[in-house]
Amino acid sequence: MVNLKDVAQAAGVSVATVSYVLRGAKAVSRAVEARVWQAARELGYQPNRSAQTLRTGRSHTLGLLVPDLTNPYFPALVQAIETTGRSLGYALILIDAQNDTAAEQQGLELLASYRIAGLVWVPVGDPPGPLPFPAVLVDRSAEGFDVVQADHYQGGTLLADYALQLGHHRIGLFSGPTELSSAQERRRGFLAGLKGLKPIWECSVPFTLELPDFALARLACNEVTLLVCANDVVAIGTVRALKQLGCRVPEEVSVLGFDDVPWAALLEPPLATVRQPVAELGRTAVTLLHERIQAPELPIRRTVLPVELIPRRSAHRARDA
C-alpha cells in the first residue's frame, strides 16, 4: 500500500506538506501542490478514510438532503453535486425528505450519526437552528447559512416581459407554496414585471403534477389566455388538465413554466419556461461547502446565479391581441 511517506519522497516534500495538500488544510504554493498531486496519481495513492474519521471525528462524506426526488429538477442537481464532491474526494449520502418535515428531521439526525463533513440542503420548510455540521442551502434563503440560488425574482420578471410581448392581458397565476422563499420571489418578480397589470386570478399550489380541486375549477372557467405556473411540474400538470378539459394549448390557452427540467422540452407542445443553471448551482454549492469545511470562520455568503427565458411552443400570441 502506498502511504504518505512514499508520496512525500516522490514529490520531494515533507509528509506534513503532503497531508496539507491532500486534505486542503493549509495553503502551499501551486508548484508544490501540483507536484504532490502528480506524485499521488502516479503512485496510485488512496487515502485511508476510516483512519481519517477516527483521527478527526469527521468523515470525508457529504450529506445531500432534498425535498422530492420525483421532481425532475432534483436528479440533475444531485448529479452535479455528486460529481463535484467526488472531484474533491468526498463520498455522498443522499436522503429524500419526500416533502415531509418529520422525515427531513429524521434525515438530519441520521446524517449527524454518520459524522458527515458537511451538508448540501434544499429544505422542505424553514431550516431549524444551528446544525452539528456546516451546511449550504440551495434554492432557499435562511439566516446563518451559506446560500446559493438562482435569481428567482429575475425569472419572474422575464416571464412577465414575455407575457406582455405576446399580448396577454387575461392571465392566471399558479404561484407556488407561500412558505418557500424561491416561489415567493418568482411571484414578486412576475407581478412587478406586469407593470400595473393584474392577473385575473391567482392560486397558490404545491409543486406537484396533481393540481388541487380549486385549481382545476379555475381552469374549467376558461377565463384566461395565459397560465403562468410556479414551476415546470405544475405547468406539465396544467397542460395535462387543460387537454382533459378539451382545451387546446397554445391555440386557446398558453402555458409558461419555471426551471427547464428535462421533461419540459419533451412535452407536447414543448414548454416555454425559465431555465435555472442547475449544474452550476450544484457545483457552486459544493465549492462553498468545501471552503466552509476548511475555514469555518469565513463570513456567511449568498450567491445568486442568473436565469434565462426559453421560448417554446406552449406559448404564443394571445388570440385577442
3D architecture notes:
- The chain is an alpha/beta fold and 321 residues long.
- The protein folds into three domains: 4-47, no CATH class; 56-150 and 277-305, Rossmann fold, CATH 3.40.50.2300; 152-276, Response regulator (Rossmann fold, 3-Layer(aba) Sandwich).
- 41% of the residues lie in helices and 16% in strands.
- The protein has eleven helices and twelve strands.
- It has helices at residues 4-11, 15-23, 30-43, 49-56, 73-87, 101-113, 152-165, 181-193, 213-220, 232-244, 278-294, and strands at residues 61-66, 91-96, 118-121, 135-138, 146-150, 171-175, 201-204, 226-229, 254-256, 273-275, 302-305, 308-310.
- A six-stranded parallel beta sheet has the order 2-1-3-4-5-11, with helices on both faces. The protein has a four-stranded parallel beta sheet with strand order 7-6-8-9, with helices on both faces.
- Helix 1 crosses helix 2 (15-23) and helix 5 (73-87) crosses helix 11 (278-294).
- The protein is elongated and about 75 Å long.
- The termini are far apart.
- The model has no long low-confidence stretch (mean pLDDT 91).
Count of helix runs: 11
Structural class: alpha/beta
- The portion of residues forming beta strands comes to 15-25%
Mean pLDDT: 91
Defining traits:
single chain, 321 residues, alpha/beta, Rossmann fold, six-stranded parallel sheet, four-stranded parallel sheet, 11 helices
Topology:
Blueprint: H1 4-11, H2 15-23, H3 30-43, H4 49-56, E1 61-66, H5 73-87, E2 91-96, H6 101-113, E3 118-121, E4 135-138, E5 146-150, H7 152-165, E6 171-175, H8 181-193, E7 201-204, H9 213-220, E8 226-229, H10 232-244, E9 254-256, E10 273-275, H11 278-294, E11 302-305, E12 308-310
Helix pairs in contact: 1-2, 1-3, 5-11, 7-8
